[in-house]
Write a structure and sequence with these properties.
About 30% of the residues lie in helices and about 25% in strands. A hairpin with a 5-residue loop joins β6 and β7. It is globular, with a radius of gyration of 14 Å. The N and C termini lie far apart (about 40 Å).
């Protein structure tokens, strides 16, 4: 198992969660790829996306079927502007590559927000530190594990 995935598994165990990290042969770099590999709905993929809120990295855990409205997000979190992070920003903030960013296991705490639409899915799947690894988790467990603040990421919801 990749060291990043092993770290995520250790964090899940330390939190008392029974979830296991799965390494897949197919890529899970995008929500659509992950859903296809896992045989689940795209909406059940908890994508970990890094943005810059007034220049500070924030992590948004969003349903794979949604696009983050950065203006809406900025209003909810009290930022003047929210922009997409570069690959370098993502790696610096999380220690993980785009497409494999886990909701936890970062070098330092990253303010985290969670898409309330993820509640609609019984089981969620999140990246485990690499573009080929995932773990299963319930919404409430993900919320507790990350200490995330609930937000709406699309205006039309």
């Amino acid at each position: 198992m990749h060291p990043s995935s092993a770290k995520i598994m250790d964090l899940l165990a330390a939190a008392g969660l029974r979830s296991q990290v799965r390494t897949l042969t197919d890529s899970t770099r995008t929500a659509a790829e992950a859903a296809m590999a896992l045989g689940c709905e795209v909406g059940a993929i908890a994508s970990s996306l890094v943005f810059l809120a007034d220049g500070v990295p924030v992590l948004v855990l969003t349903s794979g079927s949604h696009r983050v409205d950065t203006d809406l997000l900025a209003r909810q979190i009290g930022a003047r502007a929210v922009t997409r992070a570069t690959a370098e920003d993502v790696r610096t903030a999380t220690g993980q590559p785009i497409g494999g960013v886990a909701p936890v296991g970062h070098p330092a705490p990253v303010p985290t927000y969670i898409d309330v639409e993820l509640k609609k899915h019984g089981e969620l799947w999140a990246a485990a530190g690499t573009p080929h690894s995932v773990f299963e988790i319930a919404y409430e467990d993900l919320l507790a594990l990350t200490g995330a603040t609930e937000v709406t990421v699309e205006e039309n919801l």
